[in-house]
Amino acid sequence: MFKKNILLALSVLLLGFVSFRGTDKTYELKGKVTDETGQGLPGVRVLLKGHAAGATTELDGSFKLNSPDSCATLEISYIGYEVKEAKACAGKSVNVKLKASETRLEEMVVVAEDRKSREQEKPILSRAKKEMSMASPGIVGYTHKMSAPQPNFNTEDYDRIQENRFHRATQEPQSTFSIDVDAASYSNLRRFINNGQRPPEDVVRIEEMINYFDYEYPEPTGKHPFSITTEVSDCPWQPKHRLVHIGLQGKHTPAENLPAANLVFLIDVSGSMNAANKLPLVQTSFKLLAEQLRPQDRVAIVVYAGAAGLVLESTTGNNKTKIKEAIDKLEAGGSTAGGEGIRLAYQTAKEHFIKGGNNRVILASDGDFNVGVSSDGELVRIVEEERKSGVYLTVLGYGMGNYKDNKLQKLADSGNGNHAYIDNLDEARRVLVSEFGGTMYTIAKDVKLQLEFNPAVVQGYRLIGYENRVLNNADFDDDQKDAGELGAGHSVTALYEIIPVGIESKFLAADKDLKYQQRDLTPTANRSNELLTVKFRYKAPEADNSQLMEEVVMDKKTNLDKSSDNFRWSAAVATFGMLLRKSEFKGDANYEQCKKLAAGARGKDTEGYRAEMIRMIESVGLMGKTETAEK
Length: 631
Known about the structure:
Shape: globular
Structural class: alpha+beta
């Protein structure tokens, strides 16, 4: 009965995203959400029942939202607590107390909808059924409902991360890496924490945690479509060290001004996708994206299970009903021929290629490919070959238990694309609605950063995160070397930990004299207060030659308490990541200090994402205390 009530509540929550229209007058509803002790809960979702309007509670648990009616029913939900409804009226503040749920539940989306009869579905699906049946007799993967229970063992795969180490500036004065705007790691580790589990260490990619958040860097004003923001202050976990914060901001482009899109939805409908947080969530996600389409945009839908098939031929964006009906009819079953699906999706995208447009395949899968071409190397080679056509790739990961993060990440990196993990409906809205331009429209490719440190000031340095993005220094000027992509309005943030000259450190080996060369510093280095020089290289989406930007960074000796909210927030996120990874470089950090640093840097946090992370820090800290007490 308890589970049924939860599923019903979540079903109602999903239906609450229907927009209210037809009225100009609005009323302000306000209140406060607390736990059973009366403590305000930050980051709680408060939705207006039956409408899309909603709000997120502030740090003290308070909220405000607009309603077309003077009185309305609110739906209040927060992971780890029971969903609750409350009546609110304009002019009065409502207090809502949430009760902790008895069990940790993974976030699920239950789609409640009336399906047409199978006879009505046959005309739309007949072509894809025929193609898939011919390719794999007896198996029509996306029309067969799986009745067998899902395995209860965990086969999730993650590549091992070897943390970047400190380098001595006199021996290696340059550091080069490819940018990464993916944020899959953050939403994935959030899934573990919300389920009451500590995420495995290799789930934690610190650069993706840092880049999950918006830092509102200034818009570019010069000839380049990027701005560079830098800041230097104390390192929270190693007070004698310095921390360098580097931010890149891509130029924002209003959605209505984005080039026409030629999209192919490539959807995994194999048996492994037969779970509430997989195919049903995929369907809801893509319907949200379909709502963003304009008449000049096009969408085709390719599915794969035992074989691949074309469910919807390329259709203009003003046929939203047709697109969503095709999405609704998908069902899961069969094995997973991902290679065939990738080839068919790219073929379809190339057939409708828009010159100067946003040509992109959007793959949604748990990454569990098991039929035909399935090895990482083979799949990567397919994508590397197909990307030459100018078609980009976005990879959306779903599900748990058999999630193949390593495979999906490699596909995105190889396909001039990006990688996100969708753990709930709110994340789907964030990736496919709120950040549609940054996620789906590339304004620069092969984006690289190279820092040159001044050895007269910097004794050693360490790039925090980006372990799988580190490049050879010679790669920076090599325009044939593939690197990361940046979308419209997207930002990239990177942190370097610096050991100043004169500070003893166990992380640096002795600087021994060389037999055949000297490392004398130039007079310029000795006289200068320059800390480092940032070099930034990128290509326009259809260009073969890169452009260069440079900026000199000075250390203004700013104390941590005088630094910006952005600086302290990124430092708090990095601290959280190192604690989760049990990093040897975490120094004096602990969860209480991390939470305090984050709480003091939360800023305006209009979407509540920063408050959510503060709550996560607290949750993992409590897990640690429980683990210690049990030993």
